[in-house]
Write a structure and sequence with these properties.
The complex is a heterotrimer of chains A (303), B (210) and C (747). With 303 residues, chain A is of the alpha/beta class. In chain A, helix 1 packs across helix 13, helix 3 crosses helix 5 and helix 4 crosses helix 5. Chain B has 210 residues and is an all-alpha fold. The radius of gyration of chain B is 19 Å and the shape is globular. Chain C folds into five domains: 129 residues, 3-Layer(aba) Sandwich (Rossmann fold); 198 residues, FAD/NAD(P)-binding domain (3-Layer(bba) Sandwich), CATH 3.50.50; 159 residues, 3-Layer(bba) Sandwich (FAD/NAD(P)-binding domain); 36 residues, no CATH class; 143 residues, Rossmann fold, CATH 3.40.50. Chain C has a seven-stranded mixed β-sheet with strand order 13-19-14-15-16-17-18. Classes of the chains: A alpha/beta (303), B mainly alpha (210), C alpha/beta (747). Chains B and C meet through helix 5 of B and helix 10 and strand 16 of C. Bound molecules: iron/sulfur cluster (5 copies). One iron/sulfur cluster binds next to helix 4, helix 7 and helix 8 of chain B.
Chain lengths: 303, 210, 747
């Protein structure tokens, strides 16, 4: 397969020293193996994420995303934009839909962009990293590179909300998307297809502002994974990853539970399965250490 | 005249119309058929947090309960999980209406003052637009200190273990407090946003006048 | 009974030859069945097998044919010998398919088959080939009563099919309620706005149709006769009466809106500004003839806010008002709200509903109303208080949980009252108790008969509980309990215009079918095409009148001397009269007390030491017997001790059969019939109910015989009970073992 090239929108949480920095590390290693070339959009800005709604209003939110589109067009005309963060992808896609469907909104957006010396001529396609993997590469291609299958590891695929709704990955159902389970299978691990909290909301931004509400959600998500005998949880979304992982201690305190389950990104699993070491997979970035993966990552690769 | 009294005058007996014209996607509210699927799908509803799940808010709007709707904390509890949107048999963009209602209540100064999510939302937006990128540390500290310094320290202590975990994992950088990530063209961003605000203001005012 | 020659044919196909000893069956037919000719064939229903039978009929003088093969419900075309009496022994579905193919089971399976051969031979000997009803009439004209949407559609559809129609309308113009509408609910894409009623178009089609004879301002003075030969007197305004020969009748007499004066709590009758849906149509028509603005009746001011109260006096659990949903009124209110919104979007229109019922494309219409700004509020209205020129509507808001919600200053309140059927006299109503001395004289409006049937059982078709005309709701919706008379439209059940038009088309076709069958002397459904009909031996009749009273279809009148007078063309061939007759003088050529009685007696009853009980099953041929056949098709096993005889209806069961069976030493009797009561499923409507009433008296018989009550079992069976039925049989067989063998064995 020839090199696949995309304009890359990492988003705030993937920045160095931010909450999803380990995600970015693993994505970089994964893309190297798969011969996917991501070129960061120069001087990109925050997507506005859905929680910004109160202050933002409608147009400013779309304008923020449009600036990224404009920059991408300026520097990498014709390239699709890939995001790794679910919220960034969703926000950008929403802006794309709205601008495409409303001429007024589009005109207003262009007017505002002018202030920053930018413009949009063509709407870019907005893709999530997992869409690129599934649709542009395919499971067969991804599987080809597995040299260290994660044999015997039981993993609950936690899809969460924003990669799943309202847009979702093409061909998947909102109530029971399967792609994450297939990815788990692809890396040689054991999926839990009837994990019933697969698409439950982790509480999103409420984890910060109203922790007790979000933590009730997180408890359900983790508990069910335990009930199914999972050793770890995998997710495609930085907010899901962060919420489900870092609040387990708080949930334990609140509910008297003893949760201690690692929460991984799909890309981390892939990097380890592709023969990468713990560092390349960003395993050092886990608040709850993924010992089992670390062990596997330390093993020699069978070729 | 405050922002609120101005609109209240204009829409005296027709709250639904006010929502249709002033709230993002507000013209969908009349299309709700009161099936209750959204309420049954909403995570924060089954954690028994909501005063009024979406179905009920929409009915209240139609019943003209302006005060109760706009001062409600309900829409602020939306986690943007989009469960309701994909399940609504009438394809009503519920999540967006929720955000729109919150934004409108905030805009005209009727939203509950110290509602945590409202506060966080504002904080997030300011944080993000200030430099063009989010500074997670300042964002969380800002939230903890919203109820004053003492409460802030308490909140911070409560979350200390969380933060420490992140720091150890290299996912929270204390140095961010002094600078951190930012966009180069901050000036352009600010100008662009100022323009967007202005356009939006003009459009909403025109609706109110027309 | 002149020369009869019986032949028995045993089929060896479909595995019968392997599972049964066919030669032994032939011997049984000869020895026990006493038939002069008995043969086997490897594949009886194929051309060769059928040719063999036909040859025997033509050349060997065979008059009576007994076929031991598959169920009587299978291969009906192959084994169709219209000139002969034919009986079928069900060896396939009834024996080998419900028994395991094992060595242990072989003996009891063979015994079962042998009994069915004995029964078949006995039955066929008691039969003669039906000859058809000789008292036929050949009128091909359809009478349609009622000139609304339903009646007009029926007339037009029948005329298009080539039949002449007499259409009688009591008012001076065609159209019925639909003619009083401003507009109707749309029936075409995009289902967004009220549409033209289409009444004028239908009416002009009627007037232009030479095949349709129209009487306006006319009523039915008298209906005499039976299908194919009704004689109908039509009274006109002038006082003149016209007589028409009619083949079949469709009654499309529609409905009257429920009287809103019975709803004073909802403001009914208390203010001119509270109207029903018909009242609003009148206001809308009036407005359309002027400036298009609907005005407040009290002072002529334009209506600025209107509230629609759904289910007013409907779906009422208290028994005070209508218990049912009229189905159309949600859409009607939506349509009426649009009258306002389409003219002026600023008019406030609120529809207060507890459930909005807008099936099918009504959903699109509902959505369109929402788009137009009609407000829908889920709640139940407690009270409408008119004061001055406006009203306050107090309601319980079911979404917001507010019991004291209200809408003030409504200019107009519209009550969605329901449809009360115009079904004429309720002939089953108990006679009114004589008024007590000194009591307030009750002013009851006496319903006026619509058909004025000159039938012993009353002037109109029977009603259901709510006043709609009785029909077999699931299977034969238009059939009334008077053969050749069909009802269609809201007189039959509440409905809207499209449903009424569909009804009209269906009823027209059923009526045509009825008059064609009548001419040929054949039964209407469910025994459509049956040529047998009840014959009565009047010499033995005691004039007890049970047959005339029980006949569910009003087929039997009385002659001047008080003897039953059968109107064969009105008869459905259910046999209820036969089951009712205490002296057993009513019979059909191919179904009688004897045909069944002979079968019961033909069964070989083993002695009490053999531990082989015998259970008689009398199974309704419409549901239970097919269900048993299907159990066979699914190879569901059941007891080898049962012997099943199909009956036309539970109503045709004469209690003598049960007494005979018990006396003969059967250990138990199972009766299988359709559900009876308000939600009956009986194909003959009242048959299973009457049968059960008779059966309830069997306990006395059991007592005189000194038998346990378990020996007779009454089962309600539906055609879907394919799994359940075998279970019930096996359970009953086990119960009987506990009760012990019948003491009558061996007598
Ligand atoms: S799911 Fe949609 S139609 Fe149903 S109550 Fe919620 S918003 Fe209304
Ligand atoms: S998007 Fe908001 S309103 Fe909708 S279900 Fe999720 S939390 Fe509830
Ligand atoms: S159609 Fe609607 S208004 Fe009429 S009775 Fe039924 S539910 Fe009530
Ligand atoms: S009871 Fe049945 S069989 Fe007898 S006359 Fe009436 S319809 Fe005919
Ligand atoms: S039921 Fe029998 S005895 Fe009685 S009137 Fe009828 S035919 Fe005569």
């Amino acid at each position: 397969m020839a090199t696949k090239e995309y304009a890359f929108y990492p988003g705030c949480s993937s920045q160095k020293g931010a909450s999803a920095s380990n995600y970015l590390t693993s994505v970089e290693a994964m893309c190297k193996t798969l011969d996917v070339k991501l070129t960061e959009i120069p001087d990109w800005n925050c997507c506005g994420a859905s929680i910004g709604y109160a202050e933002a209003g409608e147009l400013p939110r779309h304008v923020l995303n449009a600036r990224n589109f404009a920059l991408s067009e300026q520097h990498m005309p014709g390239k699709e934009i890939v995001a790794t963060c679910a919220a960034c992808w969703l926000g950008a896609r929403e802006t794309r839909e709205r601008l495409t469907h409303s001429e007024t909104l589009m005109a207003d957006t262009r007017e505002a962009l002018k202030e920053a010396g930018l413009t949009i001529n063509e709407m870019p396609n907005i893709r999530h990293m997992v869409e690129v993997l599934i649709e542009d590469l395919g499971f067969d291609e991804m599987k080809k590179h597995v040299v260290r299958p994660l044999e015997g590891v039981k993993i609950a695929g936690y899809v969460g909300c924003q990669t799943n709704r309202p847009f979702g990955v093409d061909g998947e159902s909102f109530e029971n998307p399967q792609y994450l389970d297939k990815m788990v299978e692809m890396v040689g691990a054991e999926p839990i297809p009837d994990y019933e909290q697969k698409v439950t909301c982790c509480g999103g931004a409420l984890a910060f502002s109203e922790p007790e509400k979000a933590q009730a959600q997180i408890k359900d998500i983790v508990e069910s994974a335990y009930d199914h005998g999972a050793e770890m949880i995998v997710t495609p979304c930085p907010l899901c990853q962060a919420n489900v992982e870092i609040y387990q201690g708080q949930v334990n305190k609140r509910y008297g539970t003893k949760f201690d389950i690692p929460v991984m990104y799909y890309s981390q699993l892939m990097v380890v399965a592709y023969g990468g070491d713990a560092k390349a997979a960003g395993l050092n970035g886990q608040v709850i250490k993924a010992r089992r993966l670390e062990e596997i990552a330390a093993k020699p690769v069978k070729r | 005249m405050s922002a609120n009294t101005a609109v209240a005058e204009k829409y005296r007996n027709n709250f639904l119309k006010e929502i249709e014209e002033q709230v993002e996607m507000g013209d969908w509210v009349k299309m709700c058929m009161q099936c209750g699927v959204c309420s049954g799908s909403c995570p924060t509803n089954f954690q028994s947090a909501w005063d009024h799940p979406p179905q009920e808010l929409f009915m209240m709007i139609r019943a003209g309960k302006r005060e109760e709707v706009l001062t409600s904390s309900s829409m602020w509890n939306c986690t943007s999980c989009y469960n309701c949107i994909v399940r609504c048999p009438r394809k009503i963009p519920i999540t967006h209406i929720m955000h729109g209602l919150a934004e409108y209540a905030h805009r005209i100064g009727m939203a509950p003052k110290m509602q945590a999510t409202r506060f966080f939302s504002g904080l997030f937006w300011k944080n993000a637009t200030h430099t063009g990128r989010v500074n997670e540390l300042k964002l969380s500290l800002g939230l903890y200190f919203k109820d004053g310094f003492v409460q802030g320290v308490k909140n911070g202590m409560a979350m200390q273990s969380v933060a420490l975990g992140l720091v150890k994992a290299g996912r929270l950088n204390v140095l961010e407090l002094f600078g951190g990530h930012k966009c180069k063209d901050q000036k352009g961003i600010h100008a662009m946003l100022a323009k967007a605000y202005e356009i939006e203001r003009v459009r909403k005012a025109a609706k109110m006048a027309g | 009974m002149a020369d009869i020659k019986v032949a028995a044919y045993i089929c060896k196909g479909c595995g019968l030859g392997e599972r049964l000893d066919a030669d032994a069956l032939v011997k049984i037919a000869q020895k026990d069945g006493k038939v002069p000719m008995a043969k086997t064939h490897d594949f009886l229903c194929n051309a060769d097998g059928v040719a063999m039978i036909k040859n025997d009929i033509a050349n060997e003088g065979v008059t009576h044919v007994m076929i031991g093969a598959c169920s009587r419900r299978a291969k009906t075309e192959a084994f169709h010998f219209p000139e002969n009496a034919v009986a079928r022994a069900n060896l396939r579905e009834g024996v080998i398919w419900i028994r395991p193919d094992t060595d242990e089971a072989r003996e009891t399976t063979q015994e079962m088959a042998e009994d069915y051969i004995r029964m078949g031979c006995a039955e066929v000997k008691a039969m003669t080939a039906p000859e058809g009803n000789p008292n036929t009439g050949g009128s091909k004209t359809l009478l349609v009563v009622g000139g609304g949407i339903t009646g007009m559609t029926t007339a037009i559809e029948a005329s298009k099919t080539g039949y002449s129609v007499v259409l009688v309308e009591k008012s001076g113009e065609l159209g019925g309620w639909a003619g009083k509408l401003y507009k109707r609910v749309p029936v075409h894409e995009p289902y967004k706005s009220p549409a033209d009623t289409g009444v004028a178009d239908l009416a002009s089609q009627i007037l232009a149709d030479g095949n349709i004879k129209l009487y306006l301002n006319a009523t039915i003075a008298k209906t005499d006769g039976s299908p194919g030969k009704f004689v109908v007197s039509i009274a006109t305004e002038s006082g003149a009466t016209h007589t028409e020969d009619i083949g079949a009748i469709v009654q499309a007499t529609g409905f009257t809106p429920y009287d809103m004066n019975k709803l004073p709590e909802l403001g009914g009758g208390k203010s001119a500004n509270v109207v029903d849906q018909a009242g609003l149509e009148a206001l809308a028509i009036d407005a359309a003839s002027k400036d298009g603005v609907i005005r407040r009746p009290s002072d002529g001011q334009p209506v600025k806010s209107v509230v629609f109260v759904q289910c007013a006096g409907q779906r009422d659990p208290t028994g005070k008002h209508l218990s049912f949903c009229s189905g159309h009124c949600c859409n009607t209110s939506i349509k009426q709200a649009m009258y306002f919104k389409d003219a002026n979007p600023d008019v406030d229109t609120t529809i207060i509903y507890s459930d909005l019922r807008t099936p099918g494309n009504g959903e699109d219409f509902y959505r369109s109303a929402q788009e137009k700004g009609v407000i829908f509020t889920k709640g139940t209205v407690a009270e409408v208080v008119p004061t001055g020129n406006t009203s306050t509507v107090k309601f319980n808001d079911l979404i917001l949980g507010d019991a004291d919600a209200s809408i003030v200053d409504a200019d107009l309140v519209v009550l969605a009252t329901g449809q009360v059927p115009n079904s004429g006299v309720n002939i089953d109503a108990p006679a009114a108790a004589p008024a007590e001395a000194g009591a307030e004289p009750k002013v009851e409006i006496k319903p006026i008969s619509i058909l004025n049937l000159n039938y012993r059982q009353g002037p109109d078709v029977p009603h259901l509980k709510q006043g709609f005309t009785d029909s077999h709701f699931i299977c034969f919706p238009y059939e009334t309990r008077r053969t050749g008379i069909y009802t269609a439209g809201p007189v039959r059940r509440p409905m809207d215009i499209p449903q009424a038009r569909e009804d009209a088309t269906g009823a027209a076709l059923k009526a045509i079918q009825a008059l064609e069958n009548a001419e040929l002397g054949r039964a209407a459904h469910p025994r459509s095409g049956d040529l047998s009909f009840p014959k009565v031996r009047l010499e033995g009749c005691t004039q007890c009148k049970r047959c005339t009273v029980e006949c569910p279809f009003g087929a039997i009148d009385e002659d001047v001397k008080g003897f039953p007078l059968f109107n064969e063309s009105r008869c459905r061939r259910c046999g209820t009269c036969m089951g009712a007759c205490p002296v057993r003088v009513i019979s059909f050529e191919n179904y009688s007390v004897n045909t069944v009685g002979a079968q019961i007696k033909a069964v070989d009853i083993p002695d009490e030491f053999s531990e082989k009980p015998r259970i008689l099953i009398l199974a309704c041929e419409n549901d239970a017997y097919p269900a048993l056949d299907m159990a066979g098709m699914n190879r569901i096993e059941y007891s080898a001790y049962v012997r099943t005889i199909p009956v036309r209806c539970l109503g045709s069961v004469n209690t003598i059969w049960i007494t005979d069976a018990l006396n003969a030493g059967y250990d138990g009797v199972m009766m299988m019939g359709c559900k009876s009561g308000d939600e009956y499923q009986c194909h003959f409507v009242k048959g299973s109910e009457l049968g059960r009433v008779r059966l309830s008296k069997i306990d006395d018989t059991l007592k005189t015989l000194n038998l346990e009550s378990e020996r007779v079992r009454d089962l309600e069976v539906a055609i879907t009970d394919i799994q359940r039925l075998p279970e019930m049989i096996n359970k009953y067989a086990a119960e009987l073992v506990a009760v012990g063998p019948s003491p009558f064995k061996g007598f």
